[in-house]
Amino acid sequence: xxxxxxxxxxxxxxxxxxxxxxxxxxxxxxxxxxxxxxxxxxxxxxxxxxxxxxxxxxxxxxxxxxxxxxxxxxxxxxxxxxxxxxxxxxxxxxxxxxxxxxxxxxxxxxxxxxxxxxxxxxxxxxxxxxxxxxxxxxxxxxxxxxxxxxxxxxxxxxxxxxxxxxxxxxxxxxxxxxxxxxxxxxxxxxxxxxxxxxxxxxxxxxxxxxxxxxxxxxxxxxxxxxxxxxxxxxxxxxxxxxxxxxxxxxxxxxxxxxxxxxxxxxxxxxxxxxxxxxxxxxxxxxxxxxxxxxxxxxxxxxxxxxxxxxxxxxxxxxxxxxxxxxxxxxxxxxxxxxxxxxxxxxxxxxxxxxxxxxxxxxxxxxxxxxxxxxxxxxxxxxxxxxxxxxxxxxxxxxxxxxxxxxxxxxxxxxxxxxxxxxxxxxxxxxxxxxxxxxxxxxxxxxxxxxxxx
Length: 453
Prior knowledge:
By secondary structure, the protein is α/β, with parallel strands linked by helices. It is 51% helix and 7% strand. It contains 16 helices and 7 strands. Strand 4, helix 3 and strand 5 form a beta-alpha-beta unit. The longest helix is centred in the middle third of the chain and has 33 residues. The chain is globular and about 95 Å long. The N and C termini lie far apart (93 Å). This is IS110 family transposase. It holds the Pfam family DEDD_Tnp_IS110. InterPro entries: Transp_IS110-like_N, Transpos_IS110, Transposase_20.
């Protein structure tokens, strides 16, 4: 006869499965026109309400949540529609968590926005939702300026292509003789063409002394077939390029002003001179970042000013948001996956996460292909072993670990060079070979090279 367990013990065991963590929790399903909000039924007779996306309606929603005693709110990250509601709720002292919609979308039986917000509220009540990373307001503002700058650079690049197209249509092969048509030589020639100059010999006089091609070669490339419609397109492209140049300068000024608002962690220590990156903003980015972080991230091989600024604007300076470096690398999407079933590893591919900081680190890793540093030697060894794509991810993972350690501990990075890395790698290989030989009952003996007679 089967023994029935004590009902009291069963009730005690089952009641501990799902504990109520957030008693005063609300769930919001974000939309482009309406937000649906769900609160506990005990707090209001109408526990589910809808609010329009107008500012006055968002204020009504916030006042209602504060009035009934809500302390924490959870919402899905839907496009950019969540930002006004998030910021308004946060300004009124509510603990707002932003969750990934993919984590809660595969739940059967939810066919409406009302059920979505109720399900979010229920999951958050039991503490089953984890909020996405969002840095403090200072870093958020810095990130917004940095992303705007990237957008402006992308728009400017399209107009450079339009300039090059108009020149090609007139058979002016300027891009064949100069590395950058927006440089000193290229822009001098283009502006002279727009001013009415057509003599190739006169146009070639704008050649800069650093240009590799001679005046004769440049003049030969400037024998063109001028047409009014192509000159018109070139003129408008140059004007648009100049416009975006001014907008980027204004964005750089806003970036510098925002960096000046951060606390000084550098202890007034000056940095040694270093060559400035061409893609970095016009101001002294390296000094500002050192003052904000207390460490020189550009001392890491492959990390230049623009990359360091982009990473700091995305992750901030507070590394306590990630308990360990493994959590940090996993958040970046640079750690190997662990898809395991039945005790067997099915896949160890990294997760596809659209992370801007990870993209910047991957680009930095790609620049180490010919570096004489230890990181460069590591990238080349991983590329010969795994191929270029995986080597880039592995090297970006190593860069992320270095940045985490420097920002968290305030430590400095010292590059020991590729020779030191190769020596350490050789010692590890020999150690593993000796251990394997001993396991198989053999002894590894080094061959002594005989001295020449």
